[in-house]
Amino acid sequence: MLEVRDLRRSFDGFMAVAGVSLTVPQGSISAIIGPNGAGKTTLFNLITGHLKPDSGQVMFKGREVTGIPPHDLCRLGMGRSFQRTNIFPKLTVFQNVQAAFLCHRGRGWNLFAPVERLYLEETEALLDSVGLLAKAGEVSGFLSHGNQKQLELGIALALEPEILLLDEPTAGMSGAETRETIQLIERLARERSLTLLFTEHDMEVVFSIAQRITVLHQGRVIADGEPAEVRRHPDVRRVYLGEKHDR
Ligand SMILES: Nc1ncnc2c1ncn2[C@@H]1O[C@H](COP(=O)(O)OP(=O)(O)OP(=O)(O)O)[C@@H](O)[C@H]1O
Ligand SMILES: [Mg+2]
Question: Which end of the chain is more exposed for a tag (fewer CB within 10 A), N or C?
């Protein structure tokens, strides 16, 4: 589904992503982990077209998409969420998802219908599946942080992605919210046959749902493989997992 080849990007001479290669098989759930500043968000931005790489390639569904702008990648089936939530805070929950449908599918043949009458059923169904139907009428900016991240997921899904890149989907959540969100993401991925690539700080989350893990450190891949392999890797234990995971 996705292949990254020797991707590099520096900022004022500082190599944030220093030659990263990885593959994400179709239908898999893969995680990218690494300490703060390891280059995870930069790598996501390079893959999704929010940043241009200095060198290297991004292949998506067998074609090269390096440097293609985000909206074109989105149209090809690549969706993402952001580490800091990216919603319209003054719109209601319903309007946020409805706007995403409108944006993605356009007005269709409904040239004269007011936009607020379009995609009502689709929006409702999607809000239901991300667990926000009861909050459809609430102003998004007043939602709890956890609900805002759920909403962001809804917005991303309205764009009908085949692969979804989630940058710290549980950032800032309580333990209970984190577990709920992860179950939700896992269910949505299964129901929609999505390929998932996510970054995450919570190791419990990573080891519970990822089928493959890539570990970044100072812009480079230091380990890549199945969770059990990665957990055993001496470099990973040294730079990342630390004492906590020694048992
Ligand atoms: N636009 C930018 N200009 C300058 N430096 C940047 C820029 N974006 C990222 N960096 C630097 O690149 C490095 C990697 O940052 P990045 O945000 O990709 O890390 P991360 O792994 O996502 O960290 P975190 O876990 O904190 O989210 C950091 O040292 C950061 O300061
Ligand atoms: Mg980040």
Answer: C
